[in-house]
């Protein structure tokens, strides 16, 4: 493993932002019954136990054994971090390869999907440690400046000010990557900041350059240098900086307008491992509705081999919330990132006649008068003769009569609607309306931008006030004000509506160590005002919403106790989910000689993986469940005693043995048992609690969840 101090330092940084002779697993899912139809399949063969040349020969021999002579089917080779290849095959050919010795899995190449300046300032307000973000201030941390972060995304726009290399030292000699020359991009676009750039050939988008914007956004948020006077046409003005501005950036373009193919994601993992990155960040994944099995998941496979080599892999949880069990990238070796809000808001308020102000949220540069002089109408009152009241109330296409809308501000109901605000704006503009007020229960962190058209979004509660005003006034008037930036906005943080929720779909016995993300307008998990974190609807958030742990920058650097999740934990996990020892030895390059799968390798034992959280599935009052945890003292005080406090739900008994941990110079690592029992015969809902260890200086809290 690499120097753990590197990862301890950058652990918080990416938060604001997985040959034998026996066939193991056969997973071949084809959608076309035509045996001659060719599609790209991924053939996964576990760890790279041989040399690159030997692996290439192995892959070629396997392909040639099922293909017609001289047929060119190979798409990609994986030979650095793990063994495998991608090839254009028929379903029959894929099935034949799946039977070959040493092949772990064969699966269709999946198409994955891609899932801000104030986030870091918000984090700094949660800590007593002052962090200087002056653009001219250089870090004196050589560890920081030599950390290499690999971003798998849609490429990079190298001219962005966030990627200048002023004041950054020489590129680390251990870096083995490359800066590729492609269309509209060459090696001179790289520098001492942007030290690597790769793309994976797609004839439709053959450049490292970012044609979407997502990759540039993610990269600048993670590692961008401080840029002064940053704003969006005056909004959100200040210093824009990434979480680790002195870190090096390596870009791997795996996504385009057409999606992110799993075979290219695996190729990026293979290259990044060989290139020498320290951290890999991916803000992409499978849709929650089509979550793959572990050995069919390119991200889980690639991440496993990266983590084996000491590389931290950070992935987005997904944007399929707020329903439960929508989290993706939930393999236990991945640090999964959720989304929450910061204390900055962009408000476009509504002024009713009589100067009553209703809070709205959007970005627009409204040209309307600040005086409420524009007629106000609800969508249902502006319906066409052909539209239903419900269609008009929601401002569905072709539901509004132009003569009723012209010159007016229209109120549209968007609660749980399938049509976007943008579509409704276009329709109101077409009918010559002058503004739109959209009612929504989705508190999106990525504020909608409507340019110079006066549009804003309001809550159902505020909508009641506006609709009452319309219905009780003969000549209702209003205006929509241009957007302003609001700082110190409360409540903050909020778990965002769209952020994917737990429990993990791979196993309910894992409570993901997910954190709140930097990808929206976001920050951390509690507000440090002794008030619990909430969802954007105002309800109390649970560990399914925000995962495990609470991030405060200074405390994450001095945590007191840490839970080390080891390679053995991950090997045991593979056993617990049903893989046999032969398979595990093919997959992993670090299996100890004396390792064997536990005798009772059932999913019930997944709870014993040394995670900082605890999840117990199939729990009821008929059995007692015992799990163990091991903690390591990394605090300044080598001789110290940690006492425990348990917060247990009603009807559940939680006992710790021992209930105190006495660390000495000779006992840096200690273990404890957690015994769960209950008087409940069944659980009507999942139950949550926590275990907290404290020595008076450091506080280490572990959430737990019990499911039936």
Automatic annotation (TrEMBL):
Keywords: Apoplast, Glycoprotein, Hydrolase, Protease, Secreted, Serine protease, Signal. It holds the Pfam family fn3_6. The active site is at residues 153, 214, 381. GO terms for cellular component: apoplast. Coiled coil: none annotated. Required for arbuscular mycorrhiza (AM) development during AM symbiosis with AM fungi (e.g. Glomeromycota intraradices). Residues 41-115 form the Inhibitor I9 domain. The keyword Transmembrane helix does not apply. InterPro entries: Peptidase_S8/S53_dom, Peptidase_S8/S53_dom_sf, Peptidase_S8_His-AS, Peptidases_S8_3, S8pro/Inhibitor_I9, S8pro/Inhibitor_I9_sf, SBT, Subtilisin-like_FN3. PANTHER family: PROPROTEIN CONVERTASE SUBTILISIN/KEXIN (PTHR10795). One of its GO terms (molecular function) is serine-type endopeptidase activity. Residues 145-461 form the Peptidase S8/S53 domain. It comes from the Eukaryota. This is Tripeptidyl-peptidase II. It is found in: Secreted, Extracellular space, Apoplast.
């Amino acid at each position: 493993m690499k120097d753990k101090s590197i990862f301890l330092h950058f652990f918080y940084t990416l938060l604001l932002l997985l040959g034998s002779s026996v066939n193991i697993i056969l997973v071949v899912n084809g959608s076309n019954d035509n045996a001659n139809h060719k599609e790209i399949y991924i053939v996964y063969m576990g760890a790279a136990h041989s040399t690159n040349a030997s692996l290439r020969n192995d892959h070629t021999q396997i392909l040639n054994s099922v293909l017609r002579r001289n047929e060119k089917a190979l798409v990609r080779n994986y030979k650095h971090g793990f063994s495998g290849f991608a090839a254009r095959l028929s379903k029959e050919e894929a099935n034949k390869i799946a039977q070959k010795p040493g092949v772990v899995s064969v699966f269709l190449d999946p198409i994955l999907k891609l899932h801000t300046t104030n986030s870091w300032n918000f984090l700094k307000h949660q800590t007593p440690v002052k962090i200087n973000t002056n653009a001219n201030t250089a870090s004196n941390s050589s560890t920081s400046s030599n950390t290499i972060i690999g971003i798998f995304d849609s490429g990079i726009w190298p001219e962005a000010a966030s990627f200048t290399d002023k004041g950054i030292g020489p590129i680390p000699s251990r870096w083995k990557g490359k800066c590729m020359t492609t269309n509209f991009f060459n090696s001179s676009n790289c520098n001492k900041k942007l030290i690597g750039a790769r793309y994976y050939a797609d004839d439709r988008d053959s450049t490292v350059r970012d044609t979407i914007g997502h990759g540039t956004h993610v990269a600048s948020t993670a590692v961008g240098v401080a840029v002064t006077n940053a704003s969006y046409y005056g909004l959100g003005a200040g210093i824009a900086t990434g979480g680790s501005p002195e870190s090096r950036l390596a870009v791997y373009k795996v996504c385009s307008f057409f999606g992110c193919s799993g075979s290219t994601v695996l190729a990026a993992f293979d290259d990044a491992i060989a290139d020498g990155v320290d951290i890999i960040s991916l803000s992409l994944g499978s849709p929650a509705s089509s979550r793959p099995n572990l050995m069919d998941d390119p991200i889980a496979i690639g991440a496993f081999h990266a983590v084996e080599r000491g590389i931290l892999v950070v992935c987005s949880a997904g944007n399929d919330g707020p329903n439960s069990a929508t989290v993706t990238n939930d393999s236990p070796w991945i640090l999964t990132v959720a989304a929450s809000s910061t204390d900055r808001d962009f408000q476009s308020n509504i002024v009713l006649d009589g100067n009553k102000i209703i809070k709205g949220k959007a970005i627009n540069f409204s040209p309307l008068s600040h005086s409420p002089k524009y007629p106000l109408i609800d969508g249902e009152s502006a319906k066409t003769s052909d539209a239903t009241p419900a269609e008009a109330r929601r401002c569905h296409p072709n539901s509004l009569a132009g003569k009723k809308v012209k010159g007016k501000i229209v109120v549209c109901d968007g609660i749980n609607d399938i049509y976007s605000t943008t579509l409704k704006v276009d329709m109101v503009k077409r009918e010559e309306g002058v503004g739109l007020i959209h009612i929504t229960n989705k508190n999106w962190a990525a504020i909608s931008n409507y340019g110079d058209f006066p549009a804003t979004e309001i809550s159902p509660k505020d909508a009641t006030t506006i609709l009452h005003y319309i219905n009780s006034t003969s000549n209702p008037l209003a205006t929509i004000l241009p957007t302003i930036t609001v700082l110190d906005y409360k409540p903050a943080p909020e778990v965002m509506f769209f952020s994917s929720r737990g429990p993990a779909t791979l196993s309910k016995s894992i409570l993901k160590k997910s954190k709140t993300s930097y990808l929206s307008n976001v920050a951390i998990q509690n507000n440090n005002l002794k008030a619990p974190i909430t969802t954007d609807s105002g309800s109390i958030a649970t560990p399914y919403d925000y995962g495990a742990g609470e991030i405060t920058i200074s405390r994450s650097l001095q945590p007191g106790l840490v839970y080390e999740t080891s390679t053995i934990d991950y090997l045991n996990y593979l056993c617990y989910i049903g893989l046999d020892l032969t398979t595990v030895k093919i997959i992993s390059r670090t299996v100890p000689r004396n390792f064997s799968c536990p005798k009772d390798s059932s999913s019930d034992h997944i709870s014993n993986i040394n995670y900082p959280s605890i999840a117990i599935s199939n729990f009821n009052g008929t059995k007692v469940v015992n799990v163990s945890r091991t903690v390591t003292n990394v605090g300044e005080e080598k001789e110290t005693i940690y006492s425990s406090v348990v917060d247990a739900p009603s009807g559940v008994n939680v006992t710790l043995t021992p209930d105190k941990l006495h660390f000495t110079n000779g006992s840096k690592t200690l273990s404890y048992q957690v015994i769960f029992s209950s008087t409940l015969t069944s659980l009507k809902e999942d139950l949550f609690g926590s275990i907290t260890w404290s020595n008076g200086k450091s506080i280490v809290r572990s959430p737990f969840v019990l499911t039936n």
